[in-house]
Amino acid sequence: MPANGTGVVAMSNGTVNLEMKGDANRFFSRHGQTAESYGAMLSTFADGMGGPAMVATFAKAWAAAMGAGALPPAICFDDIEATDIDWIWPNHLARGKLTIIEGDPGKGKGLITMDIAARLSRGEAMPDGSATPKCNVLFLTGEDDAADTEKPRLEAAGADASRVFLVPAKGGGAGWNLGDDADMLAKYITDNDIDLLIIDPLTEFLPAVDTHRGNDVRVILARLRDAAVKTRCAVLAVRHLNKGSGAAALYRGGGSIAFTGAARFVFTVGIDPDDKSCRALACTKCNVAREVRTLLYRPVQSGRAARVEWLGESDLTADQILSTARDQPSDQAKAFLLELLADGPVGSKTVTDRATQAGLSTATLNRAKKDLGVQSFRTGTVWEWALKDWVPRSDPFADDPRQPTLPMEHA
Question: Are residues 45 and 108 in the same domain?
Fold first, then answer.
């Protein structure tokens, strides 16, 4: 550390959560000052510098105390208290962080947000079994009517409506936008003790900028992130996909990749390729926790509205549930096997490895195998697959190395 006691702090996306060790005197004495001379600065930190604060807030406070244009000192990591992530839904939603759910229209993104809001309002376990506290939820929505769509959906999901709020229409005919109105949204969050803000859809509330320009997007999302950190509120935003079929799920979100970059968690909704009546919610990006397994669900009617019925976990990936090649997964798997086995038996490991490379799940492959009547048998110590009309040589002295020595079924 330099002789003047000033350390260097690394900042991610321009912000850092500060949990100051000890009392304020220790921090200010590091910079040759006393806490008493910085009353204006101290007021910006929760509990006298014992709570989270933004670097931007720190800079403003320093300027207020020292005069406009004063350059604040770098923050030493020794003055930052390490903390745990404050989860609302472990590995999915965290206070002060942005989560994005993205998918094509009609796949149930809105129903998922309603289900999440309902579970949090009651303090009910989440679809993966994670325990959650009772939370207040605030919606900023722009596509559905509150009375005939959103309220019936909340009722169908069993929400405690006394804990769920809606941002009202902005006066003067102007719509809300996250570029100019982040501070006002923060006030709604604070006034109603909100734990989760749900924005559906995210692009509805962006100012008039080119959403494909990363620099523009980063500025707007930084304001949203600052509001989330300041209020200790989690943010869940809904985004539509682009039309770039065939691209990896990470690049399918509409607009700039900066949306994905700003989010700490991204989840993709799509179709279960093995059962088209099912939908899937798969993890596309997770920066601050372990990746979670995909959750399967289907929309079901409940009274006046639809709700989500969760069906358990799956090993499907985001790429698999978006793959257009899986529009007819069983037919594709049959064609794959007919072509691969056309010239005779193939080792089962080779079959499964190539199926995985082709984007076919094990369940789809096995279903196609059964439908085609594909044989399984062992040649020496190696299991092989062959089409049902393949007839092994009867001559035990034939030089076909694929001659089965122990014919038998093997699933």
Answer: no
| 127: number of Cβ within 10 Å | 21
**What separation in angstroms does the CA of 153 have from each of 89, 111, 149, 303, 305?**
21, 7, 6, 9, 5
Helix 348-357 / helix 362-372 crossing angle, nearest 10 deg: 120
Closest C-alpha among 263, 260, 261, 266 to residue 285: 266
Q: What is the pLDDT of residue 367?
A: 87
Instruction: Specify if 394 maps to a domain.
Output: no
* Percentage above 90 pLDDT, the chain: 35
Question: In 3-state terms, what secondary structure has residue 150?
Answer: helix
Per-residue pLDDT for 393 more than 70?
Answer: no
Establish how many alpha carbons lie within 13 A of residue 3's alpha carbon, considering only the half-sphere containing its beta carbon. 0
Examine residue 398 and state whether it is found in any structural domain, yes or no: no
Do 341 and 263 belong to one domain? no
CATH of the domain at 162: 3.40.50.300
Is 102 found in the same domain as 39? Answer: no
pLDDT of residue 324: 45
Q: What is the span of the domain harbouring residue 202?
A: 87-323
Q: Residue 176 CA to chain centroid, in angstroms?
A: 24
Cα 110 from Cα 101, distance rounded (Å): 10
